Amino acid sequence: MHFDPLYQPFPSYRVPVYAKQGMVATSQPLASQAGLEILKKGGNAIDAAIATAAALTVLEPTSNGIGGDAFALVWTEGKLHGLNASGPAPQSISIEALQAAGHTEMPKLGVIPVTVPGAPAGWAELSRRFGRLTLAEALEPAIRYAEEGYPLAPGLARHWARAADIYARQGDAEAGRAWFETFAPGGRVPAVGEMWRSPDHAATMRRIGESEARDFYEGELAERIHNFIAEHGGYLTKEDLAAFKPEWVDPISVSYRGYDVWEIPPNGQGLIALAALNLLKGYDFDEKESVLGYHRQLEAIKLAFADGEKYITEERKMGVTVEELLSDAYAEERRKLIGDTARVPEAGDPRSSGTVYLATADGEGNMVSFIQSNYMGFGSGLVVPGTGIALQNRGHNFSLDATHANALEPGKRTYHTIIPGFLTRGNEAVGPFGVMGGFMQPQGHVQVVMNTVDYHLNPQAALDSPRWQWTKGKTILVEPDFPQHIAQALARKGHDIQVQVDPSQFGRGQIIWRNPDNGVLCGGTESRADGTIAAW
Description:
Layout: E1 17-19, E2 22-26, H1 29-40, H2 45-59, E3 69-76, E4 79-85, H3 95-100, H4 119-130, H5 135-138, H6 140-148, E5 150-151, H7 154-170, H8 177-183, E6 195-196, H9 199-211, H10 214-218, H11 220-231, H12 238-243, E7 247-249, E8 252-256, E9 259-263, H13 270-280, H14 291-311, H15 322-325, H16 328-335, E10 355-362, E11 367-373, E12 383-384, E13 389-390, E14 421-425, E15 428-436, H17 441-453, H18 459-464, E16 468-472, E17 475-478, H19 484-492, E18 496-499, E19 508-514, E20 521-525, E21 532-535
Helix pairs in contact: 1-2, 2-4, 2-6, 6-9, 13-14, 13-16, 13-17, 14-19
């Protein structure tokens, strides 16, 4: 990787971090320390990823929880492995049942959009296959923080208060009571610097560790989840939980200027990032602050999203193949649609031509790109009483249109927003990267890859660079420090440019790159979040 380690073309208060023996990068400083603690105890990068992920369910519950999903890309012994730990819809749910109950679209909150949580099984599977320590050992830091408590950081407190307000106004008051008892004890949310603890989280995590997650899917925890959902008219059952198994998958990639960019295959939206890069590799990007360069990036991501929104669902249900969507021939046809002015994107036909992200690395060459989420912050607004398990609402992404690729079906996994990324060159790992944040994620992946490969920015500069986000039609959000003259020129090309002051709208990323010559690790962490890098 060729970059000037001190070059910072954009305002930044951080510089990249270098280390040799190990590194953990994530959005919460205490969670990074939890992963580093496990590395120093003799664990590898996989153990550290599990420890960090579990700790984040306690330390950043505004973005993920025990009742969420996870995906991972694991580099070990010279090979990249993919893990899909996203859960399916319940077997008893159906479009017909919801329409009969008066629903015209999938609800956002409550028991109906709750799908099988995959994260605990994902932790156990990673530990079983690649970990050096036991799952119980990896979960020790998370248990300690849940029992002893920790003080809230500023960004965390802000998102916590926002979620409480949403659930108070829009949530299910009866089913959501345990959420408020857990996350707003005494009738108020914790403030910045205030201690928060959850012994229920600790007890649940201990059960998960001791049983290698079996208790969550087949034991007392599964029984509690089943009873709670049934009591409030939901569909998830203990039979759904018992039937779930994470899936090892072959990662998908595109070649981009001598590098291979890797993502998890559908049902994740990583395919969108790859499709956009496949379009963009047909152009030269010699200058970062170029109106034409930004215009082409925006048009490419719109075209990629149009295809993604039409086709992405569980891979066996897509109707087109990943190979067709990522073929050079299809990219060439789609590239012809990128003209001089902004346009509203439409899907093509290739057959004719609320989330936490973490990265870990150890001194032995193992590296992990890991992401997990409850979706839309805390998720469904529900906590299983007495467990600390905040349940996800991933089912909200299902369509109730039976003709749509992502139509709701029993036992089907929905279109998923969370995506880990990984970069390789030749047969060598460059490293893990990710940008969490709903539908911003593939857009963040494209920008991070281009900042790294096209513009030779170091990891911290690649993350600090002002971001853009396409939302719909011709609407583009940009950060306040996005170059004003570029924004004005893009507006003259027909883009609806809107300045967004909320940094959380542009995702939160982490990067760790490895120097193949000496094994030195170089990391960057998100300046838009409370994050930090722990290293030794």
